[in-house]
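Technical annex, item 7. During the second reporting period the consortium partners agreed on a shared format for inverse folding records so that results from different sites could be compared directly. Each record opens with the tokenized structure and is followed by the designed sequence. A conforming record, contributed by the partner at site C, is shown below for reference.
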């Protein structure tokens, strides 16, 4: 296929890739422009395997022999492949690209909550988690530990933001997800569908995770809250039960990504 050599970092054809380190800019631009960025050869391949379509590819010449399948997909999708030397790539993206290629991909339309939870037995709901690294880590744990689907609140960080996708190792493409709204009133649909809603929260009346996982409900939606403050009072009030991870050593809680892995292992591994 034909390759497009780029020598000017201000080339307007590279608009999708400019300002990648500006979080505030990108989290507005990407949904509005209908795109997301996949970083690294492995992540691009996961996205393609999940059925996502390429808009374009950007890489250094030395990576061309490593991605024949990505180039083939680009040709099939009618996507342009831009090739630039690494100093130009750094000017375009704002960082050193050392994981292979970058790809701009068409952002899919989010499915309905109803379609995402259909057939699921274990859900996780992320309330207002703002750190993209945590979101990506939670998706990776969800994929590896048996969570069927993820719901994110309107103010939660974008699972398709570059850092979330990278930290998740592309598992955001294999775990069904969508945004739940209004919040927390949207939890009513989960209850109507037979889910018990459990809040992972530090509450005096919270049940120890080990006890709760011994006899879990058939369908369970686990709520995880934002960094620092945890779940909102409204979310905890809307839940059917509060669950906590017993701690020791004077530590009151774990980072939300670490806590999610512990909870997923306990609650998903106990399914009958």
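Designed sequence (site C submission):
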């Amino acid at each position: 296929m034909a390759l497009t050599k780029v020598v000017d970092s201000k080339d307007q054809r590279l608009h999708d890739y400019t300002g990648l380190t500006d979080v505030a800019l990108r989290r507005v631009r990407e949904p509005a422009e209908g795109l997301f960025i996949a970083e690294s050869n492995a992540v691009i391949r996961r996205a393609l395997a999940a059925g996502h379509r390429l808009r374009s590819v950007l890489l250094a010449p030395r990576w061309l022999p490593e991605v024949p399948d990505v180039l083939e997909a680009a040709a099939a999708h009618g996507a342009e492949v831009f090739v630039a030397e690494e100093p130009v790539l750094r000017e375009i993206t704002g960082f050193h690209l050392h994981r292979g290629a970058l790809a701009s991909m068409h952002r899919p339309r989010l499915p309905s909550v109803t379609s995402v939870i259909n057939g699921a037995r274990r859900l996780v709901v992320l309330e207002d988690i703002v750190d993209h690294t945590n979101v990506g880590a939670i998706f990776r744990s969800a994929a590896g530990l048996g969570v069927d689907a993820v719901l994110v609140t309107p103010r939660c960080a974008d699972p398709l933001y570059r850092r979330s996708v990278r930290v998740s190792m592309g598992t955001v493409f294999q775990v069904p997800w969508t945004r739940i709204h209004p919040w927390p009133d949207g939890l009513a649909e989960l209850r109507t569908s037979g889910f018990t809603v459990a809040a992972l929260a530090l509450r005096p009346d919270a049940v120890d995770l080990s006890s709760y996982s011994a006899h879990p409900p058939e369908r369970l939606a686990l709520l995880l809250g934002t960094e620092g403050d945890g779940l909102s009072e409204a979310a905890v009030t809307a839940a059917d039960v509060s669950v906590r991870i017993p701690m020791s050593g004077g530590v009151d809680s774990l980072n939300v990504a670490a806590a999610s892995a512990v909870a997923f292992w306990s609650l998903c591994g106990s399914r009958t």
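The domain at 113-268 is CATH 3.40.1280.10 (Alpha/beta knot). The mean pLDDT is 94. All partners now use this format for quarterly exchanges.
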